[in-house]
Amino acid sequence: GGALGDHDKMVAAASCTEIILWALQADGNGNEIGVFHLGVPVEAIFFVGNQLIATSHTGKIGVWNAVTKHWQIQDVVPINSYDAAGTFLLLGCNNGSIYYKFPLRMKDNDLLVTELYRDPTEDAVTALSVYLT
């Protein structure tokens, strides 16, 4: 709901490097919002707030924002794990880093994927769990 209309639902599917996003209305009608390309194989897609997130173990993250209707891709190091809570996304990477992503910054559309922590021995972060109170 929200940016697409109070009764809209979004559905996404990925195959290889492409993500297809649809809006479905309560009456059963729907329309394709767009086809987005990550450029590398997509391992996971999920919604975090009003954003569709696509990740690849190769180290790419793609974000489609329902408010700005803008698709962006950012490179990070190879991703091993992730978890989301509220509007925050955490990425566990193979170099021991944990990155976090805030909602899209509206003034310049920056994805704001920022390193939160890096293990001094660079052991891979293989699992994450987030709980916000």
From TrEMBL:
It comes from the Eukaryota. One of its GO terms (biological process) is positive regulation of epidermal growth factor receptor signaling pathway. InterPro entries: SHKBP1/KCTD3 (IPR047876), WD40_repeat_dom_sf (IPR036322). This is SHKB1 protein.
